[in-house]
């Protein structure tokens, strides 16, 4: 009886801890955190990685293997910090400790954006609270302001507490602030009908986001009020075989950009160079044999040219079929059957 009571108390304490973490997760007090240590804050580089756990069909518990293979190159190319724009943890099976270990050896400061895959992982909320004090936060590097938002607190939308935070962060921009970078996971702007044919990952497609996103009603009006250049960057591309590799559009002072990796041949990450307030974007393919266009090529006008063709999708389906256990078993049984048939024919001929 005493043992059962102990187990009951222990279970209650665990549930209480989970409840406390959830309450902290919904706390409206977002942090302005300490920025990364950069030797030269006038000239520096960072990268943005979207859907960095890779393919939905992969078995890795850390980052996308093809991206991990690029980390040494990223380090040697002068990257000062990285921003992971959601879906860098493989849901329930992904392991934060593996991701952190893969990054730690290259000594590049990572910053994380909450994606739907992180929300499914039991450790993510606690990790965000420990790292940033909340699931949305900001920091400044000399003339640039960085704002990270969480589009999972209310699925594919930005909650009121974050809107208040965003408004404060934008309205307090000073003369020294030249550029603003805003990050969230899904392409929230896809709720606009002009983007109904954008080939993003499933959650960000027009028909899945039109009734959820509040970007055009609540977020964009805040951004367009300031005359400063604002770059809104999402990471929900590359995780479907027919996904386009990147996205670009511009609405006056607001530039919309997306990048991603996982299931397309032209998977990539975004390299951002800051030079005394001037901004340069470069898409870097994970496959060295692939050549990508300038970021502004991936616009609505060029939509039909830059998502993966049907013949590639057919090839991908064949590859996936070959990789299934049932196909392998079928080949094995078939080979045994053919061997028995040839043995029988040989036996009949000898007789």
Please give a quick description of this structure.
The protein is an alpha/beta fold and 351 residues long. It has 11 helices and 12 strands. The strands form 2 sheets. It has a 7-stranded mixed sheet with strand order 1-5-6-7-8-10-9. Strands 4-3-2-11-12 form a 5-stranded mixed sheet, with no helix packed on it.
Q: Please state roughly what percent of the residues sit in beta strands, choosing from under 5%, 5-15%, 15-25%, 25-35%, 35-45% or over 45%.
A: 15-25%
CATH architecture of the largest domain: 4-Layer Sandwich
What integer is the average pLDDT?
A: 88
Quaternary structure state of the chains depicted: single chain
Nearest-angstrom radius of gyration? 24 Å
CATH fold naming of the largest domain: Purple Acid Phosphatase, chain A, domain 2
Placed side by side, the strands forming the largest sheet appear as 1-5-6-7-8-10-9
The total strand number stands at: 12
Query: Alpha-carbon distance between the termini?
Result: 78 Å
Number of domains: 2
Shape: elongated
> Could you list the spans in which at least 5 consecutive residues all have pLDDT below 50?
1-12, 14-28
Q: What is the level 1 CATH name of the largest domain?
A: Alpha Beta
Tell me the CATH superfamily of the largest domain. Metallo-dependent phosphatases
Going by helix content, strand content and strand pairing, the class is alpha/beta
Give the biggest sheet: 7 strands, mixed
Specify the number of helices: 11
- Helical fraction equals 25-40%
Question: SSE string, helix = H, strand = E?
Answer: HEEHHEHEHHEEHEHHEEEEEHH
């Amino acid at each position: 009886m005493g043992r059962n009571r102990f187990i009951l108390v222990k279970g209650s304490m665990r549930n209480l801890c989970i409840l406390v973490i959830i309450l902290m997760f919904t706390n409206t007090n977002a942090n302005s955190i300490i920025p990364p240590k950069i030797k030269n804050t006038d000239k520096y580089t960072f990268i943005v990685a979207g859907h960095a756990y890779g393919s939905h069909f992969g078995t890795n518990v850390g980052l996308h293997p093809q991206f991990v293979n690029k980390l040494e190159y990223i380090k040697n190319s002068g990257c000062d910090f990285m921003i992971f724009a959601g879906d860098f943890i493989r849901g329930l099976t992904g392991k934060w400790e593996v991701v952190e270990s893969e990054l730690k050896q290259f000594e590049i400061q990572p910053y994380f954006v909450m994606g739907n895959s992180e929300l499914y992982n039991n450790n993510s909320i606690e990790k965000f609270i420990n790292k940033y004090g909340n699931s949305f936060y900001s920091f400044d590097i000399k003339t640039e302001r960085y704002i990270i938002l969480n589009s999972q607190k209310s699925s594919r939308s930005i909650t009121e507490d974050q809107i208040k935070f965003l408004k404060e962060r934008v309205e307090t921009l000073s003369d020294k602030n030249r550029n603003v970078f805003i990050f969230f996971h899904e392409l929230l702007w896809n709720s606009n009908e002009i983007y109904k044919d954008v080939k993003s990952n499933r959650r960000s497609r027009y028909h899945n986001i039109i009734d959820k996103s509040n970007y055009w009603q609540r977020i964009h009006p805040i951004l367009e009020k300031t005359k400063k250049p604002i770059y809104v960057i999402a990471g929900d591309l590359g995780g479907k075989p027919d996904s386009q590799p990147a996205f670009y559009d511009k609405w006056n002072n607001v530039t919309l950009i997306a990048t991603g990796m996982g299931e397309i041949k032209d998977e990539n990450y975004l390299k951002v160079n800051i030079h005394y307030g001037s901004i340069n974007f470069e898409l870097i393919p994970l496959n060295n044999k692939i050549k990508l266009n300038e970021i502004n090529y991936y616009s609505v006008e060029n939509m039909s040219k830059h998502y993966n063709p049907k013949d590639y999708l057919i090839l991908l389906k064949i590859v996936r079929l070959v990789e299934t256990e049932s196909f392998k078993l079928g080949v094995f049984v078939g080979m045994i059957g053919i061997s028995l048939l040839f043995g029988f024919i040989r036996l009949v001929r000898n007789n």
